């Protein structure tokens, strides 16, 4: 029982640390630091997947060998511990999978802000013009504000600065 408690407490403390790391991830300016953080996340999540699997097997084996307590006192507590250790296997495996995906993405997307996406890579087509408007293929007939400007009455020339 001390094994399961120890694994759970260390996993909780590490989860808090990784949440702080995720919050600070965008402010990590070094690619090397980001890589070390992602590798630490991947390794820790993988190790805790294995430790929770061992804990689940250990708890389930001990519970199957134990005698039922008088009046079923504490049965629900033990079954909940076994159930949550089983669910934790998949939770930590999911964390390891997402850390692996982040590692595979590499540094290409590490420093790319999401608001500067390449327009050619976005799904869908560009906006169409308003109904009855010019086709988007033809473009302007002549560039606006260029060429010969018309002079007003009286042949007034604006001063050149």
From TrEMBL:
<keyword id="KW-0812">Transmembrane</keyword>
<feature type="transmembrane region" description="Helical">
    <location>
        <begin position="78"/>
        <end position="100"/>
    </location>
</feature>
<feature type="domain" description="MARVEL">
    <location>
        <begin position="1"/>
        <end position="104"/>
    </location>
</feature>
<protein>
    <recommendedName>
        <fullName>MARVEL domain-containing protein</fullName>
    </recommendedName>
</protein>
<dbReference type="GO" id="GO:0031594">
    <property type="term" value="C:neuromuscular junction"/>
</dbReference>
<dbReference type="InterPro" id="IPR008253">
    <property type="entry name" value="Marvel"/>
</dbReference>
<feature type="region of interest" description="Disordered">
    <location>
        <begin position="126"/>
        <end position="161"/>
    </location>
</feature>
<feature type="transmembrane region" description="Helical">
    <location>
        <begin position="6"/>
        <end position="25"/>
    </location>
</feature>
<keyword id="KW-1133">Transmembrane helix</keyword>
<dbReference type="Pfam" id="PF01284">
    <property type="entry name" value="MARVEL"/>
</dbReference>
<dbReference type="InterPro" id="IPR016579">
    <property type="entry name" value="Synaptogyrin"/>
</dbReference>
<comment type="similarity">
    <text>Belongs to the synaptogyrin family.</text>
</comment>
<feature type="transmembrane region" description="Helical">
    <location>
        <begin position="37"/>
        <end position="58"/>
    </location>
</feature>
<dbReference type="GO" id="GO:0030672">
    <property type="term" value="C:synaptic vesicle membrane"/>
</dbReference>
<keyword id="KW-0472">Membrane</keyword>
């Amino acid at each position: 029982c001390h094994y399961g408690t120890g694994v759970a407490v260390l996993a909780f403390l590490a989860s808090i640390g990784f949440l702080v790391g995720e919050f600070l991830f965008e402010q990590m300016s070094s690619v090397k630091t980001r890589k070390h953080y992602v590798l630490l996340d991947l390794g820790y999540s993988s190790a805790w997947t294995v430790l929770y699997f061992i804990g689940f097997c250990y708890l389930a084996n001990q519970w199957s060998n134990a005698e039922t307590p008088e009046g079923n006192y504490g049965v629900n507590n033990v079954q909940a511990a076994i159930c949550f250790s089983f669910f934790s296997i998949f939770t930590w495996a999911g964390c390891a999978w997402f850390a692996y995906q982040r590692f595979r993405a590499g540094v290409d997307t590490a420093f790319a802000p999401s608001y500067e996406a390449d327009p050619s890579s976005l799904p869908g087509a560009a906006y169409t013009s308003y109904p009855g408007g010019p086709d988007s293929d033809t473009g302007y007939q002549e560039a606006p504000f260029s060429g010969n400007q018309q002079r007003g009455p009286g042949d007034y020339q604006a001063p050149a600065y």
